[in-house]
Amino acid sequence: YYHLDVRNIYKRGTFSKLCVFAGAKDDFNEPLEKIMENAFLRLSYINSRRWLRFLLNLFKSGGKINFKEMIPEERRMLNMFTYSVWEKAYPDLIFDLVTELKSSPTMLAELIELLEYNYSKIDFIDKKIDLGFKCPLDLHCTYTRDQVLLAMDHMDPSNVREGVKWIQDKQTDIFFITLNKSDKDYSPSTMYKDYSINESLFHWQSQSTTGSDSNTGQRYINHRSLGSKILLFVREHKRNSFGTEPYTFLGTANYVSHDGSKPMNIIWKLDDPIPAKYLKKTNQLVAG
Question: I need a labelling partner for 243 at 20 to 30 A (CA). Which of 7, 106, 181, 215 fits?
Answer without folding.
Answer: 106
